[in-house]
Amino acid sequence: MTTTRLVIIGNGMAGLRTLEELLPLRPPGLSVTVFGAEDRPAYNRIQLSPVLAGEMDLDEVALRPASWYAEQGVTLHLDQTVVEVDRQHREVRCASGLRAGYDRLVLATGSLPFMPPLPGRELAGVMAYRDVADTQAMIAAAQAYRQAVVIGGGLLGLEAACGLARRGMAVTVVHLAPWLMERQLDRPAGALLAAALGRRGLHFALGAPTEALLGDAAGRVRAVRLKDGRELPASLVVVAAGIRPRTELAQAMGLQCDHGGRGGVRVTDTLQSVTDPRVYAVGECASHRGTAYGLVAPAYEQARVCANHLAGLGVARYPGSQTSTQLKVSGIALFSAGDFMGGEGCEEIVLDDPAAGVYRKLVLREGRLVGACLYGDTQDGPDLLRLIRAGTPVTTGRDALMFDPAGVLAAGTEASGAPPPTRPARLAAGTALDAHQALPA
Questions:
Q1: Is the domain 126-239 a CATH 3.50.50.60 member?
Q2: pLDDT at residue 424 is higher than 90
Q3: Edge-to-edge order in the sheet of strand 99-101
């Protein structure tokens, strides 16, 4: 029997899901080797925020034990960083000297946190938020120090800020934009979020560019200086300024990457590199039709398609993803999807009740729902996302759209002759949809 050698570089959520999707389809003679740079098997990165907040333990975020790989006949190499891939001889090489040959190769190298070129970024106590080691370092800092600044008021920055506050630190969030989570929320929803987090003790400096990080005589950060001259005391500074696809290995291999690598490995609808069809890329390191997604749902959708082709079926195609966002902070319920900002050519349906802490905005274009932004009551989020993905005309169900999107979806499905959708259980306020969470930077 001819053996086909598959190597997966990366044992994070995208790499593991590709393996999980492949195993039921595994053709005879396929050998699988996985390389993971961390010293532990795959874990759920999107649950690191609850770990930081003390709501979960590290052992609860593990996805598969090392023994599972062996049971599946998969060779797993942990704490092994692949530093070179020889495409001519089809061989991967690790910093330790370990080597493995391949016939098919999957890059699931993920992303790296973006660290702005701020003066003082090399000081002790300045860190990004990405993995288990970062989470452990933040927990240790919270036990030793009292003041923290988080640079970045996006999804991950706010989760880090809330976690540190739960650990007893006084936290100020510095954000360049005029409102929080400006990529996921509009201004009214952002204001409601800031008010809710302010009641939990967080402080904010919005519309505030950071100028420099200041250190003490021992070389540890002591303050963050803003461009308006303010200095915010801090013994811990967490930078959550976004992510960049991890493509240094791909570039060294000679694979085409978008935007000089900042946009990821360019792949086709079959997740194959446009440079070398033997090489696939999934997750945050992949750029599909010019987009590199930093979310779990697209990574899982890509993994399914990639596995289909690795198994030799060759029928699946990845068309891109319609994504949504939720914040993983207990008691805070928000949801957004699609083109929720609206604009020219769009119609907005808005329910705004600041006293109740409820805000719902639906955006329509040409009679179809194209975006939604919810705060305070997000239980209809999954149905709204289905409407956005389906492109179902809602001209006949506009009165019900705000409060019964499931009915509008069912009516549109019935009119089209398609089988009715399966409606998931309603979500409690603040419940996270793992498949649509942002990956930590």
A1: yes
A2: no
A3: 82-86, 91-94, 99-101
